[in-house]
Specification:
By secondary structure, the chain is α/β, with parallel strands linked by helices. The protein has 9 helices and 5 strands.
Length: 217
């Protein structure tokens, strides 16, 4: 039996500013740093000792992971990273203030973009996609895999192959795997682990810096 520990990154600067973040690479706030350290203390209090670390390729998840390993005195752990664990791409909404966006488009429309399973926000333009593709982290991907927008169902579709191909074999080998990622990518994992339906996963809340632990046979 393996153990899977899921942690959403600590508060980011865009979280604090109430902005749509998505694939925009922003750092943690001081509160986010404290949340990462508290997450490590909770993991230690449960008697858990991660032996593999998995993160997205975004700074806020990576920094959270590094802070947790420092607190756990396990900075030497092997690390795997994948773009497949990135946050949902919010398309043309990325960087916008959520309240201002609601004032412009209406509360119901913004709620639909944020909380539906299969409704995508407006796309970014092709030039924005090409600029993102030029980033070293995504340059190896076919351009078609670099999103211009995503619904939650799209995030789940990209997360699950990585879960089954990489994380599950580690769990079957008895490892304790610590995953530091994002609210929507973690929703995809919890959907499978708790066998949630589409409506249930949409309403699932995953708090910053609060570990979720699963024993996986």
């Amino acid at each position: 039996m393996g153990t899977l520990i899921l942690v959403r990154h600590g508060q980011s600067t865009y979280n604090a500013e109430n902005r749509f973040t998505g694939w925009v690479d922003v750092p943690l706030t001081d509160q986010g740093v404290a949340e990462a350290k508290e997450a490590a203390k909770a993991i230690e209090a449960d008697g858990l000792r991660p032996d593999v670390l998995v993160t997205s390729v975004l700074e806020r998840a990576i920094t959270t992971a590094e802070l947790m390993l420092h607190e756990l005195e396990r900075p030497w752990l092997p690390v795997l990273r994948s773009w497949r664990l990135n946050e949902r791409h919010y398309g043309a909404l990325q960087g916008l203030n959520k309240a201002e966006t609601a004032a412009r488009y209406g509360d119901e429309q913004v709620k639909l973009w944020r909380r539906s399973f299969d409704v995508r926000p407006p796309e970014t333009d092709v030039e924005a996609q090409r600029l993102l593709h030029a980033d070293e982290r995504y340059r190896m991907l076919p351009l078609a895999l670099v999103p211009r927008t995503e619904a939650l169902c799209d995030v789940i579709d990209r997360v699950l192959p990585y879960y089954y191909d990489v994380i599950v074999p580690l769990l079957w080998d008895g490892h304790t795997v610590l995953v530091s990622a994002h609210g929507n990518s973690l929703r995809g994992l919890v959907k499978v682990l708790r066998d949630l339906d589409d409506d249930e996963v949409v309403s699932l809340e995953i708090a910053n810096g609060e570990p979720l632990v699963f024993r996986v046979p």
